[in-house]
Structure formats: structure tokens, C-alpha cells
Amino acid sequence: MRFAWPIIALPLQLMISCSHPQDKTGSSDVAVEPLIVGGDTLESRNKMVETYTGILPCADCSGIETHLTLWHDEFVAEGKYELKQNYLGVSKGGQTRFVYLGEWTTLRGNNANPDATIVELMNVHDSSSVYFMREGANLLMLDQNQNVIKSKLNYLLLNEIEIGATKLNYEILENYFLKNTVSPKKNPSVYFVQSKAGLDSLLGIGKTMTNEIRNPDFNTEDLIILAAPATSVQTTIRVDSVKQRGTDLNIYFTMNTADELSYTITPLAAISVQKVGGIRNLNLVSTYEVVATARVN
């Protein structure tokens, strides 16, 4: 029983010499600051856990039921893994369940995309490595040369935060700024606010032509603020979507930087999101991965 790898017969030396140079990425810049606003506490978790699941193709069985867990410290793109696999549709008598334990790391780029984020599981299947590419919050299995497998078969493992997740309605709030009494330490920091007093302690109102400012209705909405430390580089934070999965609230965001400025700014994104109740965890999800999580007490 084995993975349905594409047939590639190359000497080991040739495979190494033709591979795209890889650079291990450094730690992530995204975190969650502990904060008490309007009676709500966010506590940063130092230990991160990512879990992925799916059924991968198999060369001589009906599929490989796969469950992958990645452990790592916050801001660190490497750590320990557990890979559980169950080979489906195998005649009775043979071993069908396997568990692999080892270390994983992150590589940058492959032949097709120099900006790709590659997850390498080391010492799997007779000490060889298995590679995945981050696609949004999910992982796409690659071939042994770290290239995308050209096939109509499914090689995608879904992040469990995506399974059963429901999109929530939200609205971007304009013309607010972070008060100078608030100093974000992380890039970005997240603030979860459920009261008008909490909003007033964090945000000021900018001048507008109409002086029309949209305030959240805290009876039906919560306020989420992403803010970065003051910088002289043009920086924007954009919230792309918000999803609920059970007691988790997933905030998908993008940060972009541009030109140097002659002054400093405090990047900010504020949204009102429909109140759902029972939220215990906030997950910040960047373009490539879950980068931080926080507990809502």
C-alpha cells in the first residue's frame, strides 16, 4: 500500500541537483495580545496546533484516510507532527493503519512558484520526506520533487477549522482610528469588543465630510479590530471573511505593505460582525495558514 505518487524515476543525485533552492522561513509576525475590553478577555496561546484531514489517492487501495496534526510554538514555522493513515478497501489480514511521528519544517518556494509555502514532514515512509503546499488554510500534497501533482484526483487535506464552517455577515467600519493610549505590540494585534465602553476606550472618530459614522449595534453585533504597531511604511490590513465553526471564530485577513512614508501611521481594520454567542476561540488566518489563536473568556 502506498501513495499514488506520479511515476518519476530519477537518480537521487539528479533529483537533488534539479530541485529548486529552498529557504526556511522565519517566524510569523502575527499574534494576539491579551486584552480586557468590555468584560471580555483574550489570552494568547503560545502553543499552536493545526489539524488537517482528508482522503488521499492510493495506488492499490480505494483511498488513504489521513489525519495530520502539526504542533509548533507561536510565531515558529516548524515543530512536531503526527500523521495517522488508514488504507481503505484493503482485504482483511493486512495492516491498514499507520502512525508516523516526527519533525516538520517550512520551506519557501518550488519550481513553479518562488513564493509558495511548503510544509515538509521529515522521516515518513522509510525515512523519506512528504511535502505539502499551503493553499489558503488547507494543505495540498506535492510530489517528491515538491511540485504540484497534475491529476484530477484529490490531494487536498482540509484544515479542520474549515470543515463545517459558516460564513458570517460583517461590515467594514470606516473613519475610525486607534487612540494614542493604545499601543499594539504585535503585527497585527486583535481586539474583541462587545460593548460601547470598550469601543470608546480603543477608537476615536476621524473627521468626515458628512460626519456619518457607523457604530456597531452591540445588541446584535460584536466589534473586531486588527491593528499593527505604528510604522513609516504604507501598510494596509484587510479582512477577507469571517467564519464560525462551533465555538471558533475564524478571521481571514491580508496585510500588504508599499512605499516608505514621511510620517507614521497605525494600520487598522475594524469590522462589525453578527453576534452568534458561545464563541470561545478566535483564530487569525492569513493567506497561508492559521497564524494565531486566542481564548475568549
Write the layout of secondary structure elements.
Layout: H1 12-18, E1 23-24, E2 35-37, E3 40-44, E4 47-56, E5 63-73, E6 79-88, E7 97-108, E8 117-124, E9 128-135, E10 138-141, E11 156-159, E12 166-167, E13 170-172, E14 176-178, E15 189-193, H2 196-202, E16 203-205, E17 221-227, E18 231-245, E19 248-265, E20 268-274, E21 281-285, E22 290-296
Parallel strand pairs: 19-21
Antiparallel strand pairs: 1-7, 2-3, 3-22, 4-5, 4-11, 5-6, 6-7, 7-8, 8-9, 9-10, 10-11, 12-18, 13-20, 14-16, 15-17, 17-20, 18-19, 21-22
Describe the structure.
With 297 residues, the protein is mainly beta. It has two domains: 12-26 and 47-159, Lipocalin, CATH 2.40.128.640; 166-296, no CATH class. Helix content is 5%, strand content 51%. It contains two helices and 22 strands. It has an eight-stranded antiparallel β-barrel with strand order 4-5-6-7-8-9-10-11. The protein has a seven-stranded mixed beta sheet with strand order 2-3-22-21-19-18-12. The longest helix is centred in the first third of the chain and has 7 residues, at 12-18. The radius of gyration is 22 Å and the shape is elongated. The relative contact order is 0.18. Mean pLDDT is 79; it is low at 1-41.
